[in-house]
Structure formats: structure tokens, C-alpha cells
Amino acid sequence: MKRHTQNRLRRWTAVCLAWLVLLSLPACGQTEADKNLLPSKAVSDRVVNLFGPMEKIEPDAENVARTAADLTVAMAEQELGLTVAYSTYTAEDYQDRTYDEVALSRVRSNLDDLYLLNPDTISILGTEGRLADLSGLDSAKNLRDIIRTANTVDGKLVAIPQEVVAYGLFVNMDLFEQYNLELPETPEEFLECCRVFQENGIEIPVGANRWWLETFVFAQAYADLYNGGSTEAEIAALNSGEARYSDYMRPGFQFLQTLIDCGYIDAERAAVSEAIEGERADFLAGKTPIVMAYWGAANAETAYGKTDFEMRVIGFPSSRGQMPVMSMTGFAVGADAEHREDAMLALDVMVSDKALQTYAETNRVISPSKNVKVDCVPALKPLSDRIEEGVYVLGSNAGMHVEQWGNTCLIVRELLNGATVEQCMASFDRLQDQALGQTP
Predict the structure, then answer these.
(1) Listing from the earlier edge strand, what are the strands of the sheet with 83-88?
(2) Whether pLDDT at 174 is above 90
């Protein structure tokens, strides 16, 4: 689970985010505090120590995602007259310790003030009471409800992201139109599309990898939980053991098993393929009609931002129609941080509407603020419309006592490698029992 979450964070950093989501964490250890986007100036006596996956960059660096994050840091430095000093994760320095493991250790030891954390780490540290309550920040008033839900632990808002990562199905509209197919809304309609494609000579209709097949599961498992008006009660039942995660997850795993049995995905190939790398070539060549990816991949030419056919990004099939799956990491402040008050002030500026507008416009992403809107490329409009309607599910939620994204990813891999659906459900039961303290 930890290894997966680390890799997801590194890919988001390398491809589309200022941080997550994941190929490598190309940090360089401690960096000088005077390396930032503003013209050189005297270093302030007030310092906020930030721990994250990447170091601060130079103003003319080409990594736009990092530039976006650093612009918000620069705003905080300029407005508050302080300096944000970066400490960064380097895999070589920490050897076999993952980013999450290092982050847990640093927060527990109060080594830094401000941290960029994955959802499972947020949940652990929030439950331990090691993260400050951010609900009193002015910027917190502007957050979407989904952000509060995903980052609230024991009634406290303990983390705030700078963007929300939405996952969807990337489809080749030319092929759908060629075979007179409507875009699928439900699992049954999706299977019918795959059947038609395969009968017309498209051997593998769905390009898959070992990271993101869980998005199908989340869409089906939690469509009602997040959109049925009883989210808090259902999560409370899961956390208490009254409800079982396996009951939620079973339909999605049965759906994946059907995809495998029908040959609509190549399970052996998916089990060893990296995200995008394994399916990109066939999708761009028009050999594969459907792949799954995150929002930013539609903007990046190194992913799917430049196709020779009409591409559209839609939600995953569910009982409630096309369903976006959303995940996020978040900034948190140590509850006992040495410079806690300045860290809170700095974060308040970094996630203010002004800063988030700059961030969202630079990276063309979904903002955590309900007041920040950014135009998306036409291909993303179907996914964007659903999100703006308030229709989506979370793939990560710090308020759930069982970490979602990483665990589900690993259990999906069990399925890809030959485990039965019931064996996969037993894995969820074990995780839930462990969280409830019912097993060693």
C-alpha cells in the first residue's frame, strides 16, 4: 500500500502536479532557503520548514507544475515576510523507506512545520492528533464540500490540497461513431460496447495497467455512498464495522472479473504495465478504443494531449451513470510544529482563492476552492460537467479507517494475478478487521 501511494505521488509530481497520484521523486535533499521564484532578497528571520517530494526550483525552470506550486509559496513569502525552507525526499537517501514512512517519522519527530502528505498518512497522523486543525483558516471557508469530507479526521480538517485529481475513461470517439455506439453510462452498457468492439476485430477493447483499474471498482462501490445523501452515516458504519467494505467492493471486482474472462482487458499485460506507458501507444494508434487516466493526461502531449482522433473523457460506468473518481494529497501543519503559527499563516496564503486561481490557471486543473473555475480542454468537458454537478466518488478519504486507493490497487493486482473475487473480498475483510483491532 505504501509503495503504491509513494509511486502515485511521484507520478503526479513528474507528470502533472506540484507534488502526487508517481514515477520518481527527483528531489535533491536540503535546498538553500534563498532559492525561490522571487528576485533575490534578504532571508527573513521567520522561517517555515516544508517537507515534500521536490525541492524549490529556479524561476526559469521548465517544470510548469512545480512552478505553479512555487508561485503560491512565493506569494506567502512576500505577503508574510518569511522564508519557506524546503526539506525534500530522495529515494537514494532513504533507501528502502517510502515517502510515506519518512513523512510519518518526520511529523512524529516535529522535524518540520508544513508537510505534503498522502491520504493514508493524513489519516494515521490525524488519528494520532499530530496534525493541526485547519478549519479556522480563512481559506478553509472556500473549500468544496468534497475536500472537507476527504480531509477530515475525527471532526478536524487536517489537510488542504492545491488541486483535486479526477480520473476518467479516455475514449476514441471516432471508433465509437464508426460502430454506432453510444458512450456507456452503466456497467452493462460498457460491457456491450466492449463486445461490439471485439466482434469487429478489436481484440483488446480496454487498455489497462497495474495502477488504475481500481477506478472501475470505486465508481461502482461508492456511487450511492457519495451521491445518495447518507455519506457520513455510511462511513461511520464502515469505521465501526457495522458495514463491510467487501460488500461495497464486490460488484466492482465481479465487473473486473467479467472484463478478464471475456478478454476485454489483458490481465497478464495489465499486471506488469506501468500507467500510461503500457497502453498509450495502442490508444494513440487507434488500436484500443478505451483507456483510463487522470485529468492532467488530457493536457500533456507526453500522455494524451495530442491525438489524431477526437478524444473524449467521461466518468466510469456506475448505477448512477458516468462517475468521475477523485483523489488528492494535501498540505498539513504539525500540531506541535516549532513554527506552527507561521506555517498556518503561510498555508492560508498558499490555498487562498488568489493563490489557487494562479495554480489552477497554470496547471489547468480542478481547484479545491468552490470559487475558482478554470476552462478545460474540450475533451475534458463531459468529466468536468459531472464534477460541477457534484457527481463523483472519492478514491481516497482520510476519514475512512481503511486506506482506500493503495489497498484497493494492491487487491486488484491479486485479481489480475489469478485470485478469485471472494479471495479479494477476504483481503478487504482482513484489512477492516485489522483497523478495528480484531486481528493482530
Answers:
(1) 83-88, 47-52, 114-117, 330-333
(2) yes
